Amino acid sequence: MIQECIRYAKAKLNVDKRLILLYCIIYFIWGLGMNWFGIRAEIAKFTFWWQVISCYILYMVPISLLLRKLPFHMQYAYGLIAMGVLEFCGYALKTSYAYPNNVLDQLFGIRNFALGMALFFALYFPLGNWGIGKIYEFFFGKTSI
Predict the structure, then answer these.
(1) N or C: which end of the chain has fewer CB within 10 A?
(2) b/e map of 123-135 (b: 16 or more CB within 10 Å)?
(3) How confident is the model over 69-87, as pLDDT tens digits?
């Protein structure tokens, strides 16, 4: 079973280097933008700006590549697991900071904050894969599949 998972991962990660670069650029900009918005709206932020690299590029890009050919609902479901782990670890290790009494706490309650963040950020995988696929096709004239 482990060998099968490794074979699957190798096949999914064996893509055009330009596609990987495109994912890294888009996700880095997306991550900086979301961190900026989280700070401005006083919702949440990374403790250090460079966590955008570790979370968005080193964690989310490979997961996006692994999920990219799956149907939307499966990408979201698997993405929810991945983001649940990331959100849990971020707040447990204090590498992410949630502003006290932020708008999400007010709407959903403090105990639902990390769950709400995971539910939202799980959309990154199907939406990111769709968008980057369209951008790749536009620039390189072929599908990323």
Answers:
(1) N
(2) ebbbebbeebbeb
(3) 999 999 999 999 999 999 9
Confidence of residue 145 (pLDDT cuts 50, 70, 90): low
Cβ contacts of 62-67, under 8 Å, gap ≥ 24? 62/13, 63/125, 64/23, 64/27, 64/124, 64/125, 64/128, 64/129, 64/132, 65/12, 65/13, 65/15, 65/20, 65/23, 66/8, 66/9, 66/12, 66/13, 67/125, 67/126, 67/129
Contacts of 60 (CB under 8 A, 6+ apart): 27, 82, 124, 125, 128
Q: What is the pTM of this model?
A: 0.90
* Rounded Cα–Cα distance for residues 58 and 52 (Å): 9
- What span, in angstroms and rounded, lies between the C-alpha atoms of 141 and 42? 41
User: How confident is the model over 14-62, as pLDDT tens digits?
Assistant: 999 999 999 999 999 999 999 999 999 999 999 999 999 999 999 999 9
Q: What is the total residue count of the chain?
A: 145
